[in-house]
Amino acid sequence: MDLQNCNRGSLILLLVVTCFTCYLLISIPFHITSTFTNSDHQENLQPVSNLELNTDYHQSSEMALEVDNNQFLKNNLRDLADKSRWRMLNRLDKNVTMCHSGTKVFKFLYVKIPKTGSSTLLGIFSRFALNYSLKILRPTKCYHLLKKTNCEDTNTNNPDLKIGPPTNEKADVMMNHYHYDPKELNKHMKGGYKLIVSVREPVSWIISCSFYKRHLDANSVIENRELFFKNSQTTPGSRKYHLKQLQYLGFNYDNHSNISAIYEYIHNFLSKRIDIAILNDQYDPSLLILKKRLCWEYKEIFYHTYTVGTYKSAYISEAARTKLLSPEYNLGEKLLYDAINRTWWQQPEVADPHFWKEVAYFTNLNKRISAEVCVKVKNTNLPKSIPATVFHDRIEIDVKFCCMLLKNKTTLKGIMDKYIKGLRNSTTL
């Protein structure tokens, strides 16, 4: 009897242990998934309009990368992390699509904001448009361009926008300095275009912009209220330094003192309009993400840097910095950058350590193409092959490509002007 009771007790204990083990196997993965999605990234999921007005911006993208990668490696949840980020990104921006079908994107609109790496991007997009003979939408009035000498004419009866080469079709692309106006642009652009925006952290932007415009120190620009809020000579209704990035993205400057209106515009702009964001401080990673989203090739995102700022002083005092990021000055620019930066770091590519290996590879290869490969190709008049790697297929670098890549900004603009006016065929460039 005792032996029978003992066996019965052992059987019951075994059954209890088995049930408890099954419970753990089912509940723990669910708990991990729930915790990762709802706890670790809860801050990232809050609406832009609920962000605190914190004017002390100290978080760097490098720190964010280190925290992300350490967390994934430590918890050994890389696959789970990727899936969670996919779900998160889909909630944040339903317009994002990955290049699974292999269909190359030929329709895009790039809002060219000064001092965000925009000239280099313009070079990339110009070569792409020329290579595929795309129809380009262009501003024609002086106040849409940086220099009055670039005006097609000064007749106020002429339209603000034209399509070139001359055609009865709508445009495939636009990539100019232009204050974003979707209603007006949709009259001239083919439907389904991708909206690409480049932005820059506001302190870094004011340092670069101050030197570029007048070779001034950023501290003196911030302290000179009259200069900071001065009207732009090239764009009526625009200011030289105040909320400049927001103005290019279509924000109504009449609401410049209304922080709630700025919040609302940023939230709507991020959630409904931007397809691809280019961070100036994450330039090469942003280009690789653009390549993947648009199904472009490596060769199509190689670039030659046009402008590298050399400043008398990149130092900005704490007092000037505090004033710059105050509600009266450029707090709106900080809110814009923080929101786009936050969304950028939530993209699925960024969560993959393999992606950052590709970034390092691309950065090195791109430098080699400009400094070594294209120099040799032009000198010898012979093409050069870049062997296939895990990141790309075999790449052929020929003389025509190198000549276009290494052209300076002014020369490339002249070629684009002639092409748009129908005076030059893209196949003979």
Kindly describe this structure.
The chain is of the alpha/beta class. It is built from 17 helices and eight strands. It has helices spanning 2-40, 42-45, 61-75, 78-92, 118-131, 182-186, 202-214, 218-223, 225-228, 244-248, 259-272, 283-294, 318-324, 331-344, 353-380, 399-405, 409-420; strands spanning 108-111, 136-139, 161-164, 173-174, 194-199, 276-279, 384-386, 395-397. The protein has a six-stranded mixed beta sheet with strand order 3-2-4-1-5-6, sandwiched between helices. The chain has a two-stranded antiparallel ribbon with strand order 7-8. Helix 11 (259-272) packs parallel to helix 14. The longest helix is centred in the N-terminal third of the chain and has 39 residues, at 2-40.
Question: Which keywords apply here?
Answer:
alpha/beta; 17 helices; globular; 429 residues; 50% helix
Low-confidence stretches: 23-97, 142-151
Mean pLDDT: 77
Helix content: 40-55%
As a whole number of angstroms, the C-alpha radius of gyration is: 26 Å
What oligomeric assembly is this protein in? Answer: single chain
Quick synopsis:
It contains 17 helices and eight strands. The chain has 429 residues and is α/β, with parallel strands linked by helices.
